[in-house]
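Reposting from the mailing list since nobody answered there.

I have sequence plus structure tokens for a pair of proteins and want to know whether others read the tokens the same way I do. The first protein:
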Amino acid sequence: MIVGIDIGGSTTDAVILENGGIHVVTIEANDPVAAAAGALGKLVSDFGIKLEDVECVAATGAGSRVLTKSLLGRPVVKVNEFTAIGIGGTSLAGLDSALVVSLGTGTAIVSATRDKIAHFSGTGVGGGTLLGLAKHMLGVSTIERLEKLARKGDLRRIDLSVRDIAGGSIGDLPPNTTAANFGKISADATPEDKALAIMNMITESIGVLALASARACGQENIVLTGKLSRLFRFMQEMKRLSFPFGRRFLIPEHADFATAIGAARHARQQE
């Protein structure tokens, strides 16, 4: 069996693909070597797997560059992060071709087809932005707490909409389309309103960039992966997120672990 490990800026994910099943763990550690070793150790411990049964560790992510040729005695194969993102996103979504958006501390956008996987675009807007703004504006340091506040929020006290400017639709833009994030923030805006507005700004910024990227590279499907994909799920649940532009946003099962899964599947393909 092959273990895939994604060593990110704030968390490290490890997965084992076995008999069609996926076993996953996540740990937090600042040192990438300690994080990788801890994730591998937790994975084999939690699921009763013998370390010697691990054929190799497929490592990806920013922290993978500091790993040596072995980890806890198992050989390490390093996988390009964009390759892992592309394979992980398309395979989980059951697609041959898609624009895969990896939502982590920042955001990476990868175009994947049968023949080519390439880094297409990206932005520094991501989970780091979300938590940075939440901590600065609201004293909130977790997504869970931010979501709890946002459930009671009202964007009408924060964001300027097309309706506010034009009194109705403009062309194909519905009246509730955001014209300016935080463009109408008022003195009576509550922490709940601000929490929802922060989340809305992040999802809209990434979503619009993803749509533009999909158009530019001719992709019809947009697969959202990474830890921040939960933010898009939340906004959809709150009926605050709608991109009526003819392309599909997909969030597959195990989207949080797509990059680690992609690393493991790539290593399997190279055997």
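The second protein, same order (residues first, tokens after):
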Amino acid sequence: MNLLKIRQYIAAGVCLAGIAALSACGPKTPVASAPPPAPVMVVPPQPMPPRGASPNLVPPPIDAFGVRRTVNAGISTAQTTWNLRSAYNVAALNCLEPKHGQIVVNYREFLKVQAKKLTAVNKLVDQEFKAKHGTRFIPPREAYMTQVYNYFALPPTLSSFCDAALAMSTEAATVKSADLDGFAARSLPSLERVFLEFYRSYDQYRTDLGAWQAKYTASQPIAVAVPGAPQVQAQ
């Protein structure tokens, strides 16, 4: 091989090496990246019913005038006195903590001192139901009184109700029969306030629960926030 061809081969090799070098410096094809992970929403604890109440509890409705239609709404003077007596009876049976022990003692004395007055009030209540329902007034009266007793025996309100009943029983011990209706008219609302406050808090719980469900029950992945526990993603 002569010197001229050797030089030609060398020149061709240099050319090819240059082309390869230029190709290596050119634009690179992008590599597809993995999609970002789905966003995780940290969810606060779900609102819970106040005082351990049932999530299915249905509070008495509120009418157009803003009055909650409990068993004590819109009742007569005689029924007010009888409902107070019924609430007192519930307290004597259910307020069993030592700090409420005086309720039973006061209730027994109340029945003894107010026996004639309570008999007269009971007759008036019978007359009112008879005027409304006719001769078959006893079943509707018994049904209503069952509602009254159940109303005052609502478990989530027991502690507050017993405190209020104890205060009422102390004052009741000094009331004369002639003043019993007036005493009932001002004392029954004091007992009722316990339940109205509870129902307000329950209404607020239902409002908060509805807002929580609307915001946090979508299909996106969530992480439930549990105090003192690590966050765990849920799908």
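Reply #1 (J.P.):
I read it the same way you do. The chain is about 60% helix and 5% strand.
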